[in-house]
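Narrative of accomplishments. A recurring question from our advisory board has been how the design workflow behaves on a single, concrete structure rather than in aggregate. To address it, we present the structure tokens for one chain from the evaluation set, followed by the sequence designed for it. No filtering or post-editing was applied between the two.
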């Protein structure tokens, strides 16, 4: 039973995009190692000897029944499961793909040389295609260029409390708070200094125009690399099916928002792709709840449910893409509750693409926004929406 549950957990992770993540080679290798452990014999005698010293004098530990690892049925299930995992894994561009292919080739030839030769010849073109895509992808973007370990700090200059004589003070400045550089610490993307892990902003040190522009340029370059990656994945170089291609692009966007969660334009770009090219439709049960609940950014459960609900065939007119777009914007507003861009975008999608109670939900979106952030822009957008 435990073995089935763990196998089901791996399959669920792969179904929802783990096989398309940046470090996807880890889950494939761990899945293979888990299945290989099915037939590893357990030394119960050694365990019994270790327990004997803790038992009363003359007592003999009761050994469990014989290890079922050598059952013929278990071996056959393991063989079929390993073959399936290997054949699925070699078609994914990933780190260590050559070693993974060599393991699969050795696995097939160790059981039957004739059958192994046939299967290896059948899957060799797919492996070569995945390898060429992996090499091409490394020429477009690399993990080092994306700075995947980057903290999701606010954009450069957004924590400015004042600007005097052309000098910008990042963070809380003279008030003694810690700004973006102070949060990131020494040697990270936003120029934190090496003294005690606090950046220039954390000590209230002003930034000159040249330092500010340098940080802006660095942020722009990194963000452009992430956008280049997403644009490359949208071209579908792997020639995936519509469902797998959507999972691949969605994985790139989800990793991008992890690094730029405080940048509203990143959430907006993801939602627009989901709206126009998501190519999937959420279940009708989620549709009914999303029309009324996804308009509230604080409701993370409903928004997440709309993101991971299994899709079925359909087009944008059926509303599934709009539900996913609304869910993305809802998750974005959890990180940026005062973003007028995200609130207005969510209200427009609810107004134009989802009918029924969404007409009322779109007004609630902006009403909740002006409560969180009572700005002139928010009230103007709400008034226009109510008039319409």
């Amino acid at each position: 039973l435990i073995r089935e549950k763990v196998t089901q957990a791996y399959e669920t992770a792969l179904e929802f995009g783990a096989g398309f993540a940046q470090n996807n080679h880890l889950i494939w290798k761990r899945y293979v190692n888990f299945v290989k452990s099915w037939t590893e014999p357990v030394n119960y005698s050694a365990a019994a000897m270790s327990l004997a010293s803790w038992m009363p004098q003359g007592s003999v530990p009761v050994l469990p029944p014989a290890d079922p690892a050598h059952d013929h049925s278990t071996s056959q299930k393991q063989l079929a499961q390993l073959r399936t995992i290997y054949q699925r894994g070699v078609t994914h561009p990933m780190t260590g793909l050559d070693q993974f292919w060599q393991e699969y080739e050795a696995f097939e030839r160790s059981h039957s040389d004739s059958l192994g030769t046939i299967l290896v010849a059948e899957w060799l073109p797919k492996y070569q295609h995945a390898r060429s895509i992996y090499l091409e992808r490394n020429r477009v973007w690399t993990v080092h260029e994306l700075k995947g370990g980057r903290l999701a700090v606010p954009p450069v200059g957004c924590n400015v409390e004042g600007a005097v004589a052309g000098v910008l003070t990042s963070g809380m400045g003279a008030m003694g708070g810690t700004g973006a550089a102070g949060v990131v610490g020494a040697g990270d993307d936003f120029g934190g200094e090496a003294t005690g892990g606090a950046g220039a902003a954390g000590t209230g040190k002003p930034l000159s125009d040249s330092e500010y522009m340098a940080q802006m340029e660095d942020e722009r370059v990194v963000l452009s690399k992430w956008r280049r990656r997403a644009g490359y994945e949208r071209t579908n170089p792997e020639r995936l099916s519509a469902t797998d291609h959507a999972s691949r692009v969605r994985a790139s966007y989800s990793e991008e928002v992890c690094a730029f969660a405080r940048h509203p334009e990143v959430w907006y770009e993801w939602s627009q792709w989901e709206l126009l090219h998501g190519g999937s439709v959420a279940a009708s049960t989620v549709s009914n709840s999303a029309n009324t609940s996804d308009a509230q950014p604080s409701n993370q459960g409903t928004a997440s449910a709309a993101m991971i609900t299994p899709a079925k065939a359909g087009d944008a007119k059926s509303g599934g893409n709009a539900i996913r777009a609304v869910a993305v914007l809802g998750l974005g507003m959890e990180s940026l509750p005062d973003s007028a861009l995200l609130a207005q975008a969510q209200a427009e999608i609810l107004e134009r693409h989802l009918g029924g109670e969404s007409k009322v939900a779109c007004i609630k979106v902006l009403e909740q926004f002006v409560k969180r952030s009572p700005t002139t822009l928010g009230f103007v957008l709400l008034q226009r929406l109510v008039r319409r």
